[in-house]
Amino acid sequence: MFVVDHSLGELANMLHGYEACLWNHDLDEESEDRPFHTAIFSDWLTETEGLSTSCGFSHAIEHEAGEGEAAFDRFFELLDRYRAS
């Protein structure tokens, strides 16, 4: 995927679209680790990091880490922890 300017909001939109396609075609994501679901990831962020995800996980991470590449990198750090949990 190509994400302009390391925009976490753009990546979140792509992930929501990907989930919608999986749901629409009654497919499950295959993963060796914990599958990624935006709603479950948001709940995990609230429980483990104390972040308010009422405006979405991308906004919560950007609020914590700043915008741009810092938030993008922080997302992947958190994603690794989420998948390992």
- Whole-number average pLDDT? 91
The total strand number stands at 0
Q: What order do the SSEs take from the amino end to the carboxyl end, as H and E? A: HHHH
Structural class: mainly alpha
Our measurement of the CA-to-CA distance between the termini, rounded to an integer number of angstroms, reads 25 Å
- As a percent range, the share of strand residues is under 5%
Figure out the total of helices: 4
Characterize the biggest β-sheet: none
- The 3D shape can be described as globular
What is the percent of helical residues? 55-70%
**Low-pLDDT residue spans:** none
The value of Rg in angstroms is 13 Å
How would you portray this structure in words?
There is one protein chain. The protein has four helices and no strands. The chain has helices at 8-24, 38-49, 57-65, 69-84. The chain is mainly alpha-helical. The mean pLDDT is 91. Helix 1 (8-24) runs antiparallel to helix 3 (57-65) and helix 3 crosses helix 4. It is globular.
